[in-house]
């Protein structure tokens, strides 16, 4: 839930900080006090667009910070998927607004605004005029129905999504494959050229490494030969070489070896050293001879390396990659040489995919229609509770012209608000105020299923009063039992239901206007209700009415 809101340097707000409570949080205040700025600042923190004129006059920046407590495991897991981890059970979203740019942070770490918005979608749900208007769109209506029916349709919906992906894959492949004859002939010719070029090269695995080693040896052979010959001279050829010196040492030690056991041991070691040195000299001599090469051999090695490197540039970074590329092109060549058969295979695969998609789509439609009847009945009951006395609510199904990843259902909410009138699309009947109540009815029905813990309602009381307002207040209280609800209202009936009542006030200090917000005590809440009820003149009768309204609200909770 939303624990804390901190706002600085926005519009009439100098700096405010407010702690929200569980249940139903109500915000009231006189017209122009800055109620819309408070909730607007929340939207800004969640990634909404802004213009620099929102900044307080004279301020270099604006700042909004929201602190959320994470209270369920599923929410935690959803955030973890975004690499967002709570710190001591809290997640902090903040945004610094400056002229021309903004900086977004989650738990103090700078993040792109797209991630801020994703996190916001997990933590909070804001319902204002825009959200109410979204009810008019069929896509939104389908989304609402699917959320209601999630437990029943999720598995099938996933199967539809997978089947659609498979269908789209084969459809795309067939579209790409269905080329004209001239294009196919062009591709055939090119493939034959590439395959021939690679095949005729006669590449052997590891050949490039061998050639590179040989080439390096040839390039450096003079230096190597000089070093080898000099080493050979020191070990075997000259009169003062190591080999000659060891031979003399052996002759000197031979007599002593026959007279003393320790001398004999040393003599044997010297014999072994002489043997090792002779072996070394033989290998060194052989290595020296291997370094001999002709200019012709060097040119051939260089030419072969250049050919292999040229093929690497065209077909792969290694001989293995070039050979793999060649095999792939050979397979493609087979396809093109028997193209009619290939096309038929694609058509067959596409038909199988479409049949499976159609099967899963129809299954999803059946489940949706079954759940839609339950949903419509609940919504109709909820609307009657909100003073739509003679309302009829239905969900119409039609088929989309094409398959989609969510099926083929064209869903539309239908409603009639007057006896004898046929049901019509919601978009043709409902006004702005009615839409807000319909959204409230939906939210009430979805309260047990909606996993977003915090709901914000703005303009929920547009165009209502009296009995309808009372009904709306009761529904808000219902949602407040399972969610944290934050609501701006102008109606005493709704405000009376508050678990926590805040007043937004405008003051003037040092010729500067400031907006503030504070939590009201029970008695202060009664006074605020009296102000809403009585306007400029608050009589004791009005205050008593407000107190009674507050008591009745408590008893209905």
Write the SSE topology.
Blueprint: E1 2-10, E2 13-19, E3 24-28, H1 35-45, E4 61-69, H2 73-81, E5 90-98, E6 101-106, E7 109-111, H3 113-123, E8 124-127, H4 129-133, H5 138-148, H6 150-177, H7 181-201, H8 207-219, H9 221-237, H10 242-259, H11 261-290, H12 295-315, H13 319-337, H14 339-385, E9 392-404, E10 407-416, E11 424-425, H15 426-429, H16 432-446, E12 454-457, H17 466-480, E13 484-488, H18 492-495, E14 500-509, E15 512-519, H19 522-534, H20 540-556
Parallel strand pairs: 3-13, 3-14, 8-12, 12-13
Antiparallel strand pairs: 1-2, 1-4, 4-5, 5-6, 6-7, 9-10, 10-11, 14-15
Give me the Rg, rounded.
42 Å
Walk across the major sheet and give the strand order: 2-1-4-5-6-7
Low-confidence stretches: none
- Helix-strand makeup class: alpha/beta
Structure overview:
There is one protein chain. The chain has 557 residues and is an alpha/beta fold. Among the domains are: 1-128 and 458-557, P-loop containing nucleotide triphosphate hydrolases (Rossmann fold, 3-Layer(aba) Sandwich); 199-333, no CATH class. The chain is built from 20 helices and 15 strands. It has helices at residues 35-45, 73-81, 113-123, 129-133, 138-148, 150-177, 181-201, 207-219, 221-237, 242-259, 261-290, 295-315, 319-337, 339-385, 426-429, 432-446, 466-480, 492-495, 522-534, 540-556; strands at 2-10, 13-19, 24-28, 61-69, 90-98, 101-106, 109-111, 124-127, 392-404, 407-416, 424-425, 454-457, 484-488, 500-509, 512-519. A 6-stranded antiparallel beta sheet has the order 2-1-4-5-6-7, covered by helices on one side. A 6-stranded mixed beta sheet has the order 8-12-13-3-14-15, with helices on both faces. The chain has a 3-stranded antiparallel beta sheet with strand order 9-10-11. Helix 6 packs antiparallel against helix 14 (339-385) and helix 8 (207-219) packs across helix 12. The protein starts with a strand and ends with a helix. The relative contact order is 0.13.
């Amino acid at each position: 839930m939303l624990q804390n809101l901190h706002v600085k340097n926005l519009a009439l707000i100098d700096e405010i900080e407010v702690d929200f409570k569980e249940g139903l949080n109500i915000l009231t205040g006189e017209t122009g006090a800055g109620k819309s700025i408070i909730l607007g600042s929340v939207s800004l923190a969640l990634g909404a667009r802004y213009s620099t004129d929102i900044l307080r006059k004279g301020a270099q920046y604006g700042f909004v910070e929201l602190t959320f407590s994470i209270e369920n495991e599923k929410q935690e897991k959803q955030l973890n998927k975004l690499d967002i981890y709570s710190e001591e059970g809290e997640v902090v979203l903040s945004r610094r607004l400056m002229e021309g740019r903004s900086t977004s942070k989650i738990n103090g770490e700078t993040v792109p605004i797209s991630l801020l918005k994703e996190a916001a979608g997990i933590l909070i749900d804001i319902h204002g005029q825009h959200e109410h208007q979204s009810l008019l769109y069929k896509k939104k209506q389908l989304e609402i129905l699917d959320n209601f029916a999630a437990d029943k349709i999720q598995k099938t919906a996933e199967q539809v999504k997978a089947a659609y992906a498979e269908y789209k894959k084969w459809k795309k492949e067939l579209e790409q494959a269905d080329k004209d004859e001239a294009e196919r002939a062009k591709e055939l010719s090119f493939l034959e050229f590439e395959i021939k070029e690679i095949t005729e090269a006669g590449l052997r695995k590891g050949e490039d490494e061998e050639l590179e080693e040989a080439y390096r040896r040839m390039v450096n052979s003079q230096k190597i030969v000089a070093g080898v010959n000099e080493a050979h001279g020191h070990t075997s050829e000259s009169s003062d070489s190591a080999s000659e010196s060891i031979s003399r040492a052996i002759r000197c030690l031979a007599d002593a070896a026959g007279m003393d056991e320790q001398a004999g041991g040393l003599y044997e070691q010297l014999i072994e050293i002489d043997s090792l040195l002779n072996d070394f000299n033989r290998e060194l001599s052989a290595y020296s001879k291997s370094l001999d090469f002709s200019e012709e051999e060097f040119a051939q090695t260089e030419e072969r390396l250049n050919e292999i490197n040229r093929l690497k540039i065209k077909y792969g970074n290694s001989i293995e990659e070039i050979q793999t590329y060649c095999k792939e092109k050979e397979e493609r060549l087979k396809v093109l040489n028997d193209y009619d058969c290939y096309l038929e295979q694609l058509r067959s695969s596409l038909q199988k995919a479409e049949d499976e998609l159609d099967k899963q789509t129809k299954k999803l439609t059946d489940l949706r229609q079954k759940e839609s009847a339950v949903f419509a009945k609940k919504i109709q009951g909820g609307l009657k509770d909100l003073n739509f006395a003679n309302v009829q609510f239905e969900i119409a199904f039609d088929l989309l012209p094409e398959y989609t990843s969510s099926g083929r259902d064209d869903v539309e909410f239908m409603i009639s608000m007057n006896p004898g009138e046929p049901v019509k699309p919601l978009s043709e009947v409902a006004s702005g105020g009615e839409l807000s109540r319909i959204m409230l009815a939906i939210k009430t029905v979805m309260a047990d299923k909606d996993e977003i813990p915090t709901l914000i309602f703005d303009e929920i009381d547009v165009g209502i009063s009296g009995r309808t307002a009372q009904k709306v207040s009761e529904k808000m209280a219902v949602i407040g039992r399972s969610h944290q609800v934050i609501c701006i209202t102008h109606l005493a009936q709704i405000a009376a239901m508050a678990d926590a009542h805040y007043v937004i006030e405008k003051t003037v200090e040092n010729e500067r206007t400031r907006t503030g917000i504070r939590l009201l005590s029970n008695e202060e809440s009664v006074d605020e209700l009296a102000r809403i009820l009585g306007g400029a003149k608050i009589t004791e009768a009005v205050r008593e009415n407000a107190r009674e309204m507050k008591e009745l609200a408590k008893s209905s909770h």
